[in-house]
Amino acid sequence: MTIRFGVIGTGAIGREHIRRISQTLSGGEIVAVTDVNQEAAKQVVEQFKLDASVYPDDKSLVAAENVDAVLVTSWGPAHEQSVLAAIEEGKYVFCEKPLAVTAEGCMNIVEAEMKHGKRLVQVGFMRRYDSGYVQLKEAIDNNFIGEPLMIRCAHRNPEVAENYSTDMAVTDTLIHEIDVLHWLINDDYKSVQVVFPKKTKHALDHLQDPQIFTIETESGVSINAEVFVNCKYGYDIQCEVIGEEGIVKLPEFPSIVMRKDAKLSTNVLMDWKDRFIEAYDKEIQDFIDSVRETGEPNGPTAWDGYIAAVTSDACVKAQQTGEKEAIVLKERPAFYSKNTECKTV
Ligand SMILES: NC(=O)C1=CN([C@@H]2O[C@H](COP(=O)(O)OP(=O)(O)OC[C@H]3O[C@@H](n4cnc5c(N)ncnc54)[C@H](O)[C@@H]3O)[C@@H](O)[C@H]2O)C=CC1
Ligand SMILES: O=C1[C@@H](O)[C@H](O)[C@@H](O)[C@H](O)[C@H]1O
């Protein structure tokens, strides 16, 4: 059975996912699209030569009989409404991060999904499918470095759009570290504190950049996470886990090594789309395969979306207060107790 997708939001990542489903992956096709900018939706149908209908809004697309699964790639504040509409119709949903912009919104989705009675939702936390993070997790789970004690990581973008604000360093950017790190070390977050170092001259007046987050976990692991979104030199993701018996670190993204003009050099990527291209392919292939084979998506759950939202809220509060803020989750329902095993091959 081919999974017939309806896409809500045909901007940057919407187009990327449409390209991969229609040209790279197997088992899925695009049959419906919508965007508040209807011209953008029409263009995408032409650009990718899709046999797809253009719908006026998310509700009509979700209700279309030939749509099996909904891909939500609109702006964050619009996600909750579309995901809830899809669950109401009993449709599968792949939703880009954030699942919803508030913890309450994520909880609405969690409750709707539990009421439906089986898992329908996967959240686009693609780093769990990145081969570097998968290797780190294998090393940690197999006790190669003993108990993790500290994590040092960095999320650097060369530049950001003018509308990028200080809180987006959390809700748009750090949210990837927030998701992947608790998964990596099988721990829960306890508190967060934020420091604003000297500001770069490349950041606009309204933006604090860089920022450093110190997150403490329930078992006492100390995480130091830098977000620097005007670093200029490239898109650079770093992560090092320091354990009692050793250290593991993300590999550098492969690049040719050049010897020229008395210099030895390698390239640094400039774009997130290239850095995680394989992870995006794998997460959506896993969504398609697991829905086809087991009737439930396999990847990051609505509960993972809720964890990310609660943690984001605490990080944003810590940006504002300068104090250490608690990260307090509700008890995990048994419905989400199964640890998802992202299929990465
Ligand atoms: N997993 C990842 O690495 C990434 C995730 N994202 C997430 O994907 C989402 C989209 O981001 P981009 O594609 O970069 O944004 P974008 O601005 O390029 O595209 C969003 C599109 O959604 C449309 N839209 C907004 N509200 C809508 C609604 N209610 N109904 C239908 N269409 C609507 C807009 O007109 C626009 O075409 C965001 O939530 C973002 O955080 C974005 C980039 C990378
Ligand atoms: O999700 C993403 C963007 O929205 C965000 O702006 C970037 O900082 C991230 O690296 C990228 O993965």
General description of the model:
It is a single chain. The chain has about 350 residues and is α/β, with parallel strands linked by helices. The chain has helices at about 10-25, 40-45, 60-65, 75-90, 105-115, 130-140, 170-185, 270-275, 275-295, 300-320; strands at about 5-10, 30-35, 55, 70, 90-95, 120-125, 150-155, 190-195, 210-215, 220-230, 235-245, 245-250, 255-260, 265, 325. The strands form 3 sheets. The protein has a 7-stranded mixed β-sheet, with helices on one face. 1,4-dihydronicotinamide adenine dinucleotide binds near residues 10 and 58.
Please render the helix and strand layout as text.
Elements: E1 3-8, H1 12-24, E2 28-34, H2 38-47, E3 53-54, H3 58-63, E4 69-72, H4 76-88, E5 92-95, H5 103-116, E6 121-123, H6 131-141, E7 148-156, H7 168-185, E8 189-195, E9 211-217, E10 222-228, E11 236-243, E12 247-249, E13 257-260, E14 263-266, H8 272-275, H9 277-294, H10 302-321, E15 325-326
Parallel strand pairs: 1-2, 1-4, 2-3, 4-5, 5-6, 7-10
Antiparallel strand pairs: 7-11, 8-9, 8-15, 9-10, 11-12, 13-14
Helix pairs in contact: 1-9, 4-5, 5-10, 6-7, 7-10
Bound molecules: 1,4-dihydronicotinamide adenine dinucleotide (NAI) and (2R,3S,4s,5R,6S)-2,3,4,5,6-pentahydroxycyclohexanone (ISE).
(2R,3S,4s,5R,6S)-2,3,4,5,6-pentahydroxycyclohexanone binds at residues 157, 172-173, 176, 272.
